[in-house]
Amino acid sequence: MKKSDYILIAVTILVFTFVLAPIIIFNDSLYIIKGGSMEPNLYHGDLVIVMDKEPADIQAGYQDGDIVVIKGPEYYTDQGAEPDFWDLLNNTQIIHRVIDKKLINGTWYFLTKGDNTAMIDGSIRTIFKSEDYSIFEYNESNGVYITKDAILGIVIFKIPFIGYLQEYGLLISLFLIISMLLFQLFSKKWQFQLFRSKRGEKRLVKSKSYLIFSGICLIVLFLQIILIQNPFFLNMTNNSMNPTLSQNDLVISTTKDPSEILVGDVVIIKSAHYFYDRGFPPILWSNFPNNSYIIHRVVDKLNVNGTWHFMTKGDNSGYEIDGMYRTVSSSPGYILFEYNKSNIIYLPQEAIIGVVEFKIPFIGFWKDNFLFSVSIIISLQVLIIIFKKTNMKIEITIRETNK
User: Fold this and answer.
1) Terminal CA-to-CA distance of the chain, rounded, Å?
2) How much of the chain exceeds pLDDT 90, in percent?
3) Which residue did the predictor score with more confidence, 255 or 363?
4) Contact 122, 81 (CB under 8 A)
5) Residue 228 counted as domain residue
6) Phi first, then psi: what are they for 328, rounded to 5°?
7) pLDDT at residue 46 above 90?
8) HEC assignment per residue over 125-142
């Protein structure tokens, strides 16, 4: 290796050390956002840094309240909240916003809620429960106030998307390594020259390898435009189909004749209103606004007077078939609803707009985040120019020193 290569390696190590230092320093204070309960302020895959804060200084409010990391759902369920509506194991951290606080006998208590959820944390209680039939109530006044002992810290900073390294670290690492090897191969083959001396000045010139890389970037952007425009490519926006489909998987679907859709097929349901119009409480499906698609599995089908109807379920929904909850009565801040195994909703065939044929992990995120992809590509272009520029400067300095 040339002396310039050693110097460049040293510079690269210093850069990586500078980037990774905050992560190493704040390692015990780092948490990764899972799910979409805090959108649009925090997204799945964001990395957040938390710090401790005195209970009296914690801010409360629906818009500007502090975002806190809660130790686990047991701090709500132990006080009467219904555990069936958490879908979380004990000691699974929850990152939600403090919306209210109160001081009782010298101890501060905090009420929390996800920005993207309609329910205040701990506000669903069981009135009656059996295997086939249960009655629950959602009452805003039932919200559970937790103490500071349940809070690990206050979110002070976020780094978008870095959390994906935990889920897709190997995939991303392989992609970067292969990309760098290919780039270096082309660089060596065509003697990548970034600078040309002219009147004592250095200026950037085009090279074959740089043009190839730029062409690949344009192809990626073109493919993303296709993803955005094509209704058969969809982003899995939640974890209701875990482990078959994970959040931000790209699903590729095709249309099928209703008679050819089989029990066990994963289908695209046109809209959540097919359930809401039949009495399903929308408050239970914060992930599915009225006009959003749903990706669930067909568990039964039947033909009624020549029209096919389908029963569906999320793989991660336990024993619950879609539609088994039904609103009994409601008023502002209060909903009485039932779980009944006979409350099954069969969707008409026009509600099914596609059948999932294939998935590509993580890529679904690109479909809904065009600007993020553009920023990544631009950043890579800039980094390559800086990398090669630094390398050339080192080589020029060494040559001038040796003269």
Assistant:
1) 20
2) 47
3) 255
4) yes
5) no
6) -95, -45
7) no
8) EEEEECCCEEEEEEEHHH
Residue 55 counted as domain residue: yes
Pairing of strands 133-139, 334-340: antiparallel
> Same domain for 207 and 274?
no
- Taking only the tens place, the pLDDT of each residue in 72-113 is 999 999 999 998 888 788 889 999 999 999 999 999 999 999
Q: Using CA of residue 162, residue 166, residue 171, residue 177, what is the dihedral sign?
A: positive
User: Sign of dihedral through CA atoms 75, 81, 82, 84?
Assistant: negative
Mean of pLDDT over the chain: 80
Flag whether pLDDT at 196 surpasses 50: no
Q: Which residues contact 390 (CB under 8 A, 6 or more apart)?
A: 8, 11
Query: Is residue 137 within 8 Å of residue 335, measured between CB atoms?
Result: yes
Helix (H) or strand (E) holding 216: helix 208-229
CATH, residue 119: 2.10.109.10
Rounded Cα gap, residues 219 and 393, in angstroms: 31
120 contact partners, CB below 8 Å, separation of at least 6? 99, 111, 112, 113, 140, 143
Residue at 11 is within a domain: no
Beta bridge partners of 196: 203
Q: Same domain for 310 and 352?
A: yes
Question: Taking the CB of residue 146, how many other CB atoms lie within 10 A of it?
Answer: 22
Alpha helices in 247-331, H assignment, sequence order: 273-276
Establish if 374 belongs to a structural domain.
no
Question: How many independent structural domains does the chain possess?
Answer: 3
**DSSP three-state, residue 293:** coil
Instruction: Identify whether residues 134 and 56 lie together within a single domain.
Output: yes
Taking residues 289-302, report their average pLDDT.
89
Q: Do 276 and 394 share a domain, yes or no?
A: no
CATH number (domain holding residue 320):
2.10.109
Model confidence, pTM: 0.71
State both tokens at 40: 């649009």
- The answer for residues whose C-beta is within 8 angstroms of residue 51's C-beta and 6 or more apart is 29, 153, 154, 156
Query: What pLDDT does residue 326 have?
Result: 95
Containing domain of residue 239, as a range?
233-367
Among residues 311, 382, 378, which one has the least CA distance to residue 344? Answer: 311
**Whether residues 32 and 86 fall in one domain:** yes
Distance, in Å, from the CA atom of 273 to the CA atom of 89, rounded to the nearest integer, reads 30
Greatest CA separation for the chain: 92
